[in-house]
Amino acid sequence: MTSQPASQGKGKHKPNLRADTARVLYSILEDGKSARECLPALQARYQDKDKAWMQEMTYGVLRQLPLLQSWLRDMLDKPLKKRFKVVEHLILLGFYQLAFSRVSTHAAVSETVAAAPALQAQSLKGLVNALLRNFIRQEKQQQPITDPHIASGLPKWLYKLLKSAYPESEESLYEQMNQRPPIWLRINRLKTSLSDYQTLLKQQKVEFTLSDEHSQGLWLAKSVDVTTLPGFDDGLFAVQDGAAQLAAEYLDAQPGQHVLDCCAAPGGKTCHIIESQPKLADCTALDVDESRMVRVKENLQRLGHQAKLIVADANDSASWWDGVLYDRILLDAPCSATGVIRRHPDIKWLRKNTDIDVLVGIQQQLLDTMWQLLKPGGVLVYATCSILPEENSQQIIKFLASHADASLLKLSEKETIAQPGRQILPGEKQMDGFYYARLLKS
After folding, report:
1. Using CA of residue 371, residue 394, residue 343, residue 24, what is the dihedral sign?
2. Cβ-Cβ contacts under 8 Å for 11 (sequence gap 6 or more)
3. Are residues 157 and 139 part of one domain?
4. What is the dihedral of CA 355, 318, 439, 383, to 10 degrees?
5. Looking at 38, 271, 283, 385, which residue is catalytic?
6. CA angle 368–373–374, rounded 5-degree value
7. Residue 38 annotated in active site
C-alpha cells in the first residue's frame, strides 16, 4: 500500500493549481487511480482555463514520464519517501513545464516552488528550486535521448511487446501514441445530414476535415468544448473516434434483425447501429457495469434513440438472455486499451503486463458465449481498442481453429486466415488504434 501524502489526508487544502496537479499525478502513478477517477474532482476547484491547464499538464507528464523520471534519477540523490513522495510528482511537473510547455521559465520555476508548501512540504522548497534551476543550467531538454525505451514514452513491458509485434514501424508507432488525438464527430443521420452539419460548422468558423472512409464522420482541426458545437443539445452529433465508427458499418445490420451490442457502455456504437439501420426489430445494449450503463441511457436520450438496456454479466447468459438468437452481435471486448493511449495516457501506467493473459482469457470466454447466442447465418463482429496481436488476430486464429461452424467474413481482400481481421494503428487516417474481425456462423 502506498503511503498517502499528508496533503491528501482529511480536511480541505487551499487551491493551488500546481500542487493539485501533482496530487492528480500521485493518485494515478502511486495509487493506481485512473485520470477519470481523480482529475475531475480537483479540476472542480478551478475555472475553465485552469481546468484545461491541469489536464494538459497531467497528460503531458504521463506521455513523457520515462524521460522525466530519467532526468529526476540523474539529479536527485535519493528518492523522496512517504508523505513527501508527492513532491517528486511536483518536480516532474516542473521539468515538463520547462521542457515541453509554453509556460515561461520564470513561472515554471517560481510557481512550482511556491506549490511545495501547499503539499505540506515547506522544508523541500529549496530542493525543488535547486533541481529546477539545475535542470535549466544543464539544458537537460537539449540532450539527445539515447535509450530507445525512454524515447518511446512507454513502460518497458509494453515497449518490448510492441517492438516484437511491429518491428518495421515501431518508431512511428511510438510517436503516434504520444500525439494528441483529434476530436471526431459522428453526424446523427436520423436528425441531419453530413452536408447540412458541415454548413453549421462553417457558420461557426469551426475547421474540420472529412474522411473518405466515413459516410457520417469528420474530425476537427482544433480542440473545442464539444458542448458549444451547433446541435449538441439537439443530438445532431456524437463524439466518437473514426475507428470506433467503423463498428456499425462492419456489422451491417439489416431491417427486421435482432441485434446485440455486448459490452456496450458508454453506448456510442449502440447509437450508431440504430442510426445506420433504424428499421431493426430491436437493439439490445448489454454491459456488466451499472454506473457506465447510465452513460448509455444518457447518450440514447440526447440522440433520440431507443434500445433495450440490460445490466448483467454477458457470460451468464441464463440470467439475462430471452432465448431468441441474434442476427448480429457486436462484441466490443474488454481489452488492454493500448490503441487509445494517445487519448488516455494514464492507461500506460495503470495497465500491467500480467493483465494481458487475464484479458485474453476473458475475451475467449466472451467469444464462446456470444457465438452460442448467434443465429446460423448470423454475423459476429469482434472488436477491441487494442494493438496487441494476442488480443486480436491471435485470438481470432484460435477461435476459427476451435469452431468448425465459424468462417472469416473478410473486411478487405488483404485479409487471410493467417492474418485475420483489420488492425488499425494509432494515427492511421487520424484514427485511434483498433482491431476488427467479422465472423460468419454456418
Report:
1. positive
2. none
3. no
4. -40
5. 385
6. 95
7. no
Q: Which amino acid is at 317?
A: S
The CA distance from 168 to 163, in Å, is 9
User: Per-residue pLDDT tens for 383-430?
Assistant: 999 999 999 999 999 999 999 999 999 999 999 999 999 999 999 999
Residue 17: what residue type? Answer: L
* Structural element, H or E, at residue 239: strand 237-239
Calculate the alpha carbon distances from 261 to 47, 53, 227, 382, 421 in Å.
38, 36, 26, 11, 19
Residue range 72-116, pLDDT digits in tens: 999 998 999 999 999 999 999 999 999 999 999 999 999 999 999
Kindly tell me if the per-residue pLDDT of 10 is higher than 80: no
Q: Are residues 373 and 391 both part of a single domain?
A: yes
Kindly provide the residue ranges of all beta strands, DSSP E only, lying in 254-318, ordered along the sequence: 258-262, 282-287, 308-311
Confidence (pTM): 0.94
Structural domain harbouring 302: 246-441
Same domain, yes or no: 99 and 134 = yes
Residue 141: per-residue pLDDT: 87
CA atoms within 13 A on the CB side of 31: 20
Q: What is the model's pLDDT at position 168?
A: 93
Q: Any bridge partners for residue 326, and if so which?
A: 374
What value does the CA radius of gyration of the chain take, rounded to a whole number of Å? 24
Q: Which three cell numbers stand for residue 167?
A: 518491428
Q: Are residues 14 and 41 in the same domain?
A: yes
For the chain, the first-to-last Cα distance in angstroms comes to: 51
For residues 233 and 293, state if they share a domain: no
CA distance linking residue 38 with residue 207, whole number of Å: 32
Q: pLDDT by residue (tens digit) across 125-158?
A: 999 999 999 999 999 889 999 999 999 999 999 9
